[in-house]
Q: What sequence folds into this?
């Protein structure tokens, strides 16, 4: 053994060191990315027919404990390094799939359409009777499953949920606004509508049951309905306010996880924590303070079509009732939503060891008299970059600047008019609630855009016409800044030849809507087949202290000399 | 004797080796009784699939070459040649024979079980034979062991180092087969088990003899030759396994055909167009002599067909959506490879031995509503009633545990009721019943309380500001208390008062056989230096029982407005109590006690719950008449209220004075931190011997629950120290860690 160890210490150690140095040198070599010649992918085929997977059930409390303590602990020993999202196309967008559909991410939608969201119409179909099929009568969030009988004889099922005593109108409004925001952002969400109705309209079905807290089903009675609605706020005319959430299509399969893949779904091949839309949804959650963004508030269903029983799994986001400033009976806890996890060991340890000297935003938040129903949901203390959900979420943990930029690009398209229409869909009884919420949504949106559009270049939506490349400065185009406050620079580079041009100042574009156009070099057409032309564009703002970050547009010419954009990278991406 | 022991070892070795062989067959039979693939096999491979990494892939491909026939056969031949060269013909024959046996067992079992290879994910290694057992694991384990054993034999050494080297080389080979997805984990385990058996055969028939005198080059040359042979064979096998350029497309087509025929066997329809497109890609990749592109194209070919019965057997490579090649490993990937390898066992332990079992347990608890069943048994009436645990540990006494029942909001919210008991083995017990009734339409309450407590681990230190250690003695005290009271004002009111009538029956027993009889009338607690010895005229002996009735008035005024009292403000409190003996024996007993506390609080950061408080507390106890004052009616310091660095009732005297500076701050929604510093002591009648030098200190830090579980119950934990007096140097003399509820003992 001694001879072995001495042999190891002399010759083998040197060999290992040499191998190590070699690997390091190999790793150092890199060059500009070579985008493939394929068209930009806007649709992935993850809806191939499969056998129906098993329904998934996840534990609520263990998920919180595991996500807070055990999962980070074990993963720490893996020494994982951050990786970019894996389901991104050459332009940094997310292709359409069973998870996501490009809406606001690639084009504008009218305010009316945003306010309608995933619903076929603004108002709930009028039905005479609402038959209760089942419900949850105890706990903090009672609700009923109702069957609405239409005039044409068809029936549609809805989940009816009510506000709590503490913050009337907020939970129902949050469910409606949240579903429309996520839908506009590209996720599938249920059709949620605020309804006002006379409680006599509710009829108990013959086979209606309720579930007690140990999961036993027992018949639902009129007393149960009265008890569930005992603390439900009512209008002066006695009508009850609720949110009616239309049942989602397909056969329920339970929630999806924010990490890993579904083992019995062959279409599910991207680890969920590496999906850009799930990562980027952290920014959307921050905007609405959707601190309860956990896997139990997601949903999957099996969509099958004739003639076979095969189908595919569709993914949804739901349950937005915590948004817009939910408060729990513990005020100490409510103050922390969005700023700290439910049980944040690091914050607790720091506060204990520093005798509470560290200033914390939850010490300073307050409610506002004109809209107390929104709890501590405000603009002043909101910091998008430090926002936290109730407990760690793997996809949120993996979010990087590119994912955040992608989500910010979406959020920046929500104009004041869009937000106004969203707030109107909540059907508040007091105009002060509308004004307050609109102000806070706009303010938080602005903070998000202000922060993340400075992390990466906001030049988006490239178009090539002839030998001119045009892009939009989203910051200006969407009204967050003036064109007079920006300077633009350009330089050109080829992926095959050495060297690049120096930065050339483009000044300010003549177009005041933030559209910037660049003439491509006159000899660029002759570069067809000789690699890609990389157009570096950067914007410098007069009030920006940090160095400007550039966006790089990769153009490729075909045999006829026509250009197309084959890829986009931004500083922070791979070079 | 030694021979018998050796025979015993050999027998045991045979038994173990045979058992491993039988186990491998038995397990294989068990495994194949499950629907193929076995869940554990699939679970492991799915986990391995998620670990796929380009750098690790390259490493594993290199490692797996160590187990290929192109490596093992030359190694065995080299070992045979070396043995023959050294004229160790028995060794040469044994290595050859066992090597052939290894081959025969491998081929025979593969042919017999005919287990298909896993196709959970596609890698760049292309296996040929069937799956069970793993030839690489079996062959590398067996041949490396034989070579090591022969090397030992030729060197004449009994060192186990060569065998450990063999294990260290063979183990990664087996693992590499799993990583590369070409074997089920059970294939590798079976291969290892069979290799153990073959290795034992080698150990049995290749004993180490006395060193063979070399007639040729030294052993070092032989070892170097062996290493060179390994390197050459690795290189040769790498070259041999790389298909010639022209054959790449052919092999790709053969792979595709295998997939096609399997799909046909299961009666699935083929998508010809997708197949044709995929085949074109395979040929293009082959034309570019790009092995990775070829492998990816083959994966697409697999996906071009209907999925098989087990969806997990489909290739799950994601589509290339960004149009970019997979990024090359970064520098940090190389730098992190070693620490990752070192931490891998820790990760596997925490993940699979800690986290996974806990996940199964708590998932089952939640799924089957175990907590709700327990809660349903412990609480009811919408949480207004139920049971709560009580506990207390620390303080230099035996711990206690107990249970409290409460029912709040009875009678339309006017009545709160609670009763609880806690105890410990033997004699310690405490029980208390509490009734609080709100007076309708008035901001006042009636309170009724009955309690009983008995402990035998109280400590008596004597009386006075400087009780000596000699006076320490354990005693048992039993107290029964009844109280009727009236409380004016709610907790949030600026002022309030309480008046109650109490009946107290107190009995004390000192520990029998103790060195000092603290209870007796002729107590030896007197010391020349102690101005307040027990047995002095004004204090009764400890063992004096009494039945006592007391009326007490307590008033307060607090300028802090909120119920939680975390704002800035002032609080003034005062109380007075008059107690008289009950019964013939105590009719002349009369004690008056009075005290006051002045407190100031500052919310340091304005509207945030971080408050600094300063309290000054003074109390005095006096007899009215000639009767000695009972020890139990003296003013006491130490314990949970004042001078917390000391045990309960550490100091007893006629009067006391305590100044407290404390700082409370939020740590969490339900926890509050506290740092405190106190100076104080007990003194004689009416503080007549007060001096600043006679004050002692107490300091600590702790956590306390707030706004949690019940408004009547808090859980505390703190660390505290107590010091000597200023005159005596202010050194730390006591240290306490306390945890418990504020209800109970």
A:
């Amino acid at each position: 053994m001694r001879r072995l160890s001495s042999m190891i210490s002399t010759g083998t150690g040197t060999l290992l060191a040499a191998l190590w140095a070699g690997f390091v040198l190999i790793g150092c070599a890199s060059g500009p990315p070579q985008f493939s010649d394929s068209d930009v992918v806007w649709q992935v085929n993850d809806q191939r027919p499969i056998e129906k997977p098993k329904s998934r059930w996840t534990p609520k409390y263990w998920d919180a404990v595991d996500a807070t303590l055990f999962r980070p602990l074990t993963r720490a020993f893996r020494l994982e390094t951050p990786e970019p999202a894996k389901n991104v196309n050459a332009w940094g967008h997310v292709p359409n799939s069973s998870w996501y559909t490009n809406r606001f991410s690639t084009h504008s939608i009218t305010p009316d359409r945003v306010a309608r969201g995933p619903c076929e119409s603004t108002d709930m179909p009028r039905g005479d009777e609402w038959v209760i099929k089942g419900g949850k009568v105890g706990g903090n969030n009672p609700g009923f499953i109702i069957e609405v009988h239409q005039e044409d004889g068809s029936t549609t099922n809805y989940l009816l949920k009510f506000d709590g005593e503490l913050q009337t109108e907020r939970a129902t409004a949050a469910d409606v606004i949240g579903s429309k925001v996520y839908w506009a952002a590209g996720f599938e969400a249920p059709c949620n509508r605020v309804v006002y109705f006379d409680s006599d309209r509710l009829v108990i079905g013959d086979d209606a049951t309720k579930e007690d807290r140990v999961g036993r089903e027992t018949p639902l009675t009129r007393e149960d309905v009265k008890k569930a609605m005992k603390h439900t706020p009512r209008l002066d005319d006695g009508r009850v306010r609720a949110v009616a959430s239309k049942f989602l299509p397909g056969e329920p399969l339970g929630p999806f996880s924010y990490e890993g893949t579904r083992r019995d779904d062959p279409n599910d091949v991207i680890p969920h924590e590496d999906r850009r839309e799930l990562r980027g949804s952290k920014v959307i959650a921050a905007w609405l303070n959707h601190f309860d963004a956990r896997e139990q508030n997601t949903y999957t269903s099996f969509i099958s079509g004739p003639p076979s029983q095969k189908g595919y799994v569709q993914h949804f986001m739901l349950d937005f009732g915590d948004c817009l400033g939910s408060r729990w009976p513990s005020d100490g806890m409510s103050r922390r939503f969005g700023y700290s996890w439910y049980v944040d060991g690091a914050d607790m340890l720091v506060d204990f060891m520093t005798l509470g000297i560290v200033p914390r935003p939850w010490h300073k938040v307050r409610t506002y008299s004109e809209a107390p129903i929104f709890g501590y949901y405000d603009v002043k203390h909101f910091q998008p970059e430090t926002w936290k959900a109730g407990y760690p979420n793997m996809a949120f943990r993996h979010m990087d600047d590119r994912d955040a930029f992608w989500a910010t690009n979406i959020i920046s398209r929500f104009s004041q008019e869009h937000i106004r229409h969203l707030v109107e869909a909540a059907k508040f009884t007091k105009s002060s609630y509308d004004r307050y919420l609109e102000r806070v949504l706009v303010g938080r949106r602005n903070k998000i855009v202000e922060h993340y559009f400075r992390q990466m270049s906001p030049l988006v939506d490239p178009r090539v016409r002839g030998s001119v490349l045009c892009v939009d400065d989203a910051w200006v185009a969407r009204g967050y800044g003036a064109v007079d406050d920006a300077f633009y620079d350009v330089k050109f580079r080829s992926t095959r030849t050495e060297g690049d041009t120096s930065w050339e100042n483009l000044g300010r574009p003549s177009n005041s809507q933030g559209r910037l156009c660049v003439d491509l070099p006159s000899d660029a057409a002759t570069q067809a087949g000789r690699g890609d032309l990389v157009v570096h564009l950067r914007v410098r703002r007069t009030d920006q202290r940090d160095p400007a970050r550039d966006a790089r547009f990769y153009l490729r010419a075909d045999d006829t000399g026509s250009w197309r954009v084959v890829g986009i990278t931004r500083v922070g991406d791979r070079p | 004797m030694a021979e018998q022991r050796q025979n015993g070892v050999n027998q045991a070795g045979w038994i173990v080796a045979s058992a491993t062989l039988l186990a491998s067959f038995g397990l294989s039979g068990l495994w194949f009784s499950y629907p193929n693939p076995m869940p554990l096999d699939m679970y492991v491979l799915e986990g391995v699939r998620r670990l796929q990494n380009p750098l690790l892939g390259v490493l594993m491909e290199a490692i797996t070459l160590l187990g290929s026939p192109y490596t093992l056969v030359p190694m065995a031949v080299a070992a045979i040649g070396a043995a023959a060269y050294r004229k160790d013909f028995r060794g040469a024959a044994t290595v050859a024979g066992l090597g052939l046996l290894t081959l025969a067992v491998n081929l025979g079992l593969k042919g017999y079980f005919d287990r298909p290879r896993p196709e959970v994910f596609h890698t760049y290694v292309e296996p040929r034979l069937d799956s069970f057992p793993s030839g690489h694991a079996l062959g590398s384990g067996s041949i490396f062991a034989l070579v090591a054993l022969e090397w030992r034999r030729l060197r004449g050494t009994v060192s186990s180092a060569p065998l450990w080297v063999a294990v260290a080389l063979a183990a990664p080979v087996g693992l590499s087969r799993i990583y590369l997805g070409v074997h089920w984990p059970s294939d590798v385990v079976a291969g290892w088990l069979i290799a153990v058996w073959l290795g034992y055969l080698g150990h049995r028939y290749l004993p180490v003899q006395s060193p063979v005198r070399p007639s040729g080059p030294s052993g070092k040359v032989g070892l170097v030759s062996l290493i060179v042979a390994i390197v050459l064979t690795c290189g040769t096998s790498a070259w041999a396994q790389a298909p010639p350029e022209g054959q790449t497309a052919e092999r790709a087509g053969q792979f595709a055909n295998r997939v096609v025929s399997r799909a046909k066997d299961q009666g699935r329809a083929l998508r010809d167009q997708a197949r044709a497109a995929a085949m074109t890609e395979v040929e293009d990749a082959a034309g570019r002599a790009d092995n990775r592109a070829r492998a990816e194209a083959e994966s697409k070919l697999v996906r071009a067909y209907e999925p098989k019965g087990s969806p997990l057997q489909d290739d799950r490579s994601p589509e290339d959506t960004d149009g970019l090649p997979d990024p090359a490993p970064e520098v940090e990937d190389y730098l992190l490879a070693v620490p990752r390898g070192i931490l891998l066992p820790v990760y596997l332990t925490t993940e699979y031995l800690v986290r996974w079992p806990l996940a199964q347990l708590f998932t089952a608890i939640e799924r089957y509503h175990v907590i709700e069943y327990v809660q349903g048994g412990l609480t009811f009436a919408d949480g207004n009633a139920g049971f709560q645990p009580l506990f207390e540990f620390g303080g230099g006494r035996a711990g206690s545990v107990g249970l409290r029942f409460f029912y709040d909001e009875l009678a339309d919210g006017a009545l709160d009721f609670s009763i609880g008991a806690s105890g410990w083995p033997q004699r310690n017990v405490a029980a208390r019943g509490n009734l609080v009734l709100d007076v309708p339409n008035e901001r006042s309450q009636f309170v009724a309380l009955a309690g009983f407590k008995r402990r035998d681990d109280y400590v008596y230190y004597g009386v006075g500001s400087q009780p000596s250690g000699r006076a320490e003695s354990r005693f048992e005290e039993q107290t029964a208390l009844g109280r009727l009271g009236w409380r004016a004002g709610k907790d949030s009111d600026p002022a309030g008062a309480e008046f109650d009538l109490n009946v107290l029956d107190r009995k004390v027993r000192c520990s029998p056989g103790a060195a000092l009889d603290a209870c007796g009338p002729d107590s030896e607690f007197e010391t020349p230096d102690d101005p307040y010895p027990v047995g002095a005229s004004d204090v009764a002996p400890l063992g004096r029982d009494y039945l006592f009735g007391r009326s007490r008035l307590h008033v307060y005024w607090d300028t802090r407005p909120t119920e939680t009292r975390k704002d800035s403000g002032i609080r003034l409190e005062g109380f007075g109590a008059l107690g008289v003996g009950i019964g013939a024996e105590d009719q002349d007993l009369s004690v008056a006690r009075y005290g006051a506390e002045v407190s100031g609080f500052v919310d340091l950061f304005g509207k945030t719950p971080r408050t600094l408080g300063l309290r000054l507390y003074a109390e005095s106890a006096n007899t009215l008449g000639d009767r000695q004052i009972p020890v139990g009616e003296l003013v006491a310091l130490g314990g949970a209220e004042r001078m917390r660095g000391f045990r309960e009732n550490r100091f007893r005297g006629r009067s006391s004075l305590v100044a407290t500076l404390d700082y409370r701050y939020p740590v969490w929604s339900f926890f509050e931190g506290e740092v405190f510093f106190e100076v104080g002591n007990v003194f004689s009648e009416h503080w007549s011997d007060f001096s600043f030098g006679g004050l002692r200190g107490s300091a600590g830090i702790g956590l306390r629950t707030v706004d949690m579980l019940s408004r009547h119950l808090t859980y505390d934990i703190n660390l505290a120290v107590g010091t000597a007096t200023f005159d005596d140097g202010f050194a730390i003399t006591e240290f306490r860690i306390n945890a418990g509820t504020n209800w109970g003992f």
Summary: DSSP finds 15 helices and 19 strands in chain B.
